[in-house]
Amino acid sequence: MAAPAQGEDSDDGMDEFMESFKTKKYKNAFNEGNWEEEFDKVPMFMKTAPEEIDPLKHPDLACIQSIIHDDDRTPEEQARNYKDEGNEYFKEKNFKKAVVSYTEGLKKNCVDLELSAILYTNRAAAHFHLGNIRSALNDATAAKKLKPDHIKAILRGAQCCIELHHYSEALQWCDEGLRLLPIDKNLQELRAKADKQKREAERDARKAKVKAKKEQNEKDALLAAIKERGIKLLKPEASQHKGSDSEDDDGDGGSSRALADLELDGISSQEATGAHVYMDEQGVLYWPVLFLYPEHEQTDFISAFCENSSFIDHLAVMFGEELPPWDTERKYRPQNLQLFFEDHEKGNLYQVDLEKPLLSVLQNQRCTVKAGTPSFIVLVSGSPFCKQFLSGKKVKRLKF
């Protein structure tokens, strides 16, 4: 089929308007709050029509009814009227009503394939400006099927594919059009855009793949390092499961536990900071650590606690010359503090030697790391609250 001349006005004056409209953004699309109300204003979707139709008050309804009930007109004439009506709505940027008019024209099932192709192409344009890109692509495809050399349908199809990031399909649409009109500037520009964005998308995909592989390798190495150290991770959902209160020797590890295998969910911190355990180039682990102060309902969060650092190193900084404002009695001095972790299985408390490094505590058989964040309870030794808090609890001292 021969290609139409480049200046052919097959869409009744829509070409010039579409060119001038490219830089204008439509701001009156449907939304969840108004679509029913807006549809009810469209004659073809009205739930109830006015008893008497005043052409001045309801020009759209009067116009459509006059067309529908004009039995003397052929389907082609009625479809053409709907097309013209849709074009007027389009020029007014009323794309919702334009879609309705073009749809009614298509319902006439006229035998004029070119007219039907134009209706599909114009409806594709209206859908496109409403943001209904997939519907626009379907209409452009239908138009091209009826009229394979319809350049505007091919242009619209290519635009839709670019918007949907289907760059290979966009190139196919452009190549079809360029076989018909090799010097068409719009098709050439669209093809160049699709080719550029396709290459950029492929480049980004390659980068993402390399990055994901690198991150996975780092996570695998991190999990292997944790496993090698014998540190046990506790899944968050299993953290409240506790067994009997029968005593075990420290370091026993013979009882069954709801421990996570070394998986990523076991090292992902649930703290709002998003901090998580990481390993430096020398293979040293740094953990996010949470200190709990139950007497004052306060917490401290250390985002990177080196496994080789002792607890007293951090406490000396946290409670040095400047004490926290909530310590009104000024009693949280490093030398006055006791540190404990809870055995999540049995509920026992284990007192930690402040001079010991974090790693030696995490490697203890009774210590488990919940949600990637070791946590410790800090109390003031011999204080009334400390005695009350520890009363009724089994407290043990770690053996190293």
TrEMBL record:
Q: Which residues form the Cns1/TTC4 wheel domain?
A: 280-384
User: What name has this protein been given in UniProt?
Assistant: Tetratricopeptide repeat protein 4
Q: Which organism is it from?
A: Triplophysa rosa (Cave loach)
- Keyword Transmembrane helix on this protein? no
Residue ranges of region Disordered?
235-258
Q: Does the keyword Repeat apply?
A: yes
Q: Where is the composition biased (Basic and acidic residues)?
A: 235-245
GO MF annotation terms: Hsp70 protein binding; Hsp90 protein binding
Among SMART domains, the record links this protein to: TPR (SM00028)
| TM region(s), chain numbering | none
Q: Which GO terms describe its cellular component?
A: cytosol; nucleus
Q: Provide the GO biological process annotations.
A: protein folding
Q: Which domain of life is it from?
A: Eukaryota
